[in-house]
Amino acid sequence: MPSFVNPEKCDGCKALDKTACQHICPNDLMVLDKDKMKAYNREPEMCWECYNCVKICPTQAVEIRGYADFVPMNASVTPLRSTDSIMWTVKFRNGILKRFKFPIRTTEEGKAQPAGGFETAHGDLNDHILAQEPEALKLSEVYTIK
Ligand code: SF4
Ligand code: SF4
Predict the structure, then answer these.
(1) Do residue 54 and residue 78 come from a single domain?
(2) In terms of residue numbers, what domain contains 25?
(3) Most buried of 2, 10, 38, 62 (most Cβ within 10 A)?
């Protein structure tokens, strides 16, 4: 089941230029209805349930199914992030609540290396040439469409 926004909890990220869920979605699925100041998933069939929007939402407004490998069917899962950990609240079908806290990073906030420590071909992350190309392709250059 794709993610969906609970409109009662969504505050539209208080009218920022780009909402947190818009910023984080790798598929560019989240949009903000500026009249209602509520976000929604515009193409649920394209959602791969990566949980990014679920975890970044500051008001816990984005809901998603919990995978069966960590919660039983019909249990709801709600994350609450802090800078170094994430607390998952699991609500089971019979109403029992359980909370699990996990560390989420070993690198200090703001210190992550964008390219994972690997050099890009020209030191530019926006370049179309990937790390270790063209040598890894055994080419003298990476061909591009002119
Ligand atoms: Fe609404 Fe949460 Fe998206 Fe912000 S991140 S617009 S509060 S769903
Ligand atoms: Fe986008 Fe992932 Fe949220 Fe789906 S779960 S809407 S792919 S951020």
Answers:
(1) no
(2) 1-65
(3) 62
Number of structural domains found in the chain: 3
Same domain, 4 and 26: yes
pTM of the model: 0.74
Q: What is the per-residue pLDDT across 46-69, written as a single tens digit (0 to 9) for each?
A: 999 899 999 999 999 998 877 777
Kindly give the distance from the C-alpha atom of residue 30 to the centroid of ligand 1, in angstroms, as a whole number: 9
CA distances from 94 to 58, 66, 68, 75, 99 (A): 27, 16, 16, 9, 15
Percentage with pLDDT > 90 across the chain: 43
Q: Which ligand is nearest to the CA of 28?
A: 2
**Which residue has its alpha carbon closest to ligand 1 atom 2?**
57
- The backbone region for 60, taken as left when phi is positive above 0, alpha when psi lies in -120 to 50, beta otherwise, is left
For ligand 2, the distance from its centroid to the CA atom of residue 66, given in whole angstroms, is 14
* In a shared domain, residues 3 and 54: yes
CATH of the domain at 42: 3.30.70.20
